Amino acid sequence: MTSLDIAANRKAAKYSSGELFRRVLWGVGQWFFRLSPRPCFGFRRLVLRCFGAAIGAHVHVYSSTRIYYPWNLSVGDWSAIGEEALIYNLGPVTIGARVTISHRAQLCAGTHDYTRADLPLLKPPIVVGDQAWICADAFVGPGVTIGQGAVVGARAVAMKDVAPWSVVAGNPAQVVKQRILKS
């Protein structure tokens, strides 16, 4: 058995100099985002776009939402990211159109390779398909794809891909039924 090499982990270059610079700028810019009044969705879309996010039309992102790196975020038209949601997007996070990310949901596109002694940083992407719903307090892990129309139930933990139009719940998330939209 070998021991962890924390010194090597800390010494490793995890970000480019350009990304480090953008992180510093966002550290200041996010205050404009966070201090904006609740109904100012257009202003927050503008701030996110200024920092490199691809934000569609009519997107609602609340001021208490925590977005780590706007330049790694893409959100389709008519989607919403709720209050106190956490978008930990070290890697790319793509959210489709008409998606709801509910209150305190977490999307985590960052992890470490725990099988290596130096624990290198990994940045696997997350994709949330059109018309999906990530319910309150749900967690979506690194590298996970949530299929079109799928529902990740409240407090569910999705560490594997979720099939389109399925409803998952629990920890780990398991399919509990299919989602059928009524007109």
Walk me through this protein's architecture:
This protein has 183 residues and is an alpha/beta fold. The chain has a single domain, classed as Hexapeptide repeat proteins (UDP N-Acetylglucosamine Acyltransferase, domain 1), CATH 2.160.10. Helices cover 19% and strands 26% of the residues. It has helices spanning 6-11, 17-34, 41-50, and strands at residues 54-55, 60-61, 66-67, 73-75, 80-81, 86-88, 93-95, 100-101, 106-108, 111-112, 121-122, 126-128, 133-134, 139-140, 145-146, 151-152, 157-158, 166-169, 174-178. The strands form four sheets. It has a seven-stranded mixed β-sheet with strand order 2-5-8-13-16-18-19. The chain is flat, with a radius of gyration of 17 Å. The relative contact order is 0.11. The model has no long low-confidence stretch (mean pLDDT 96).
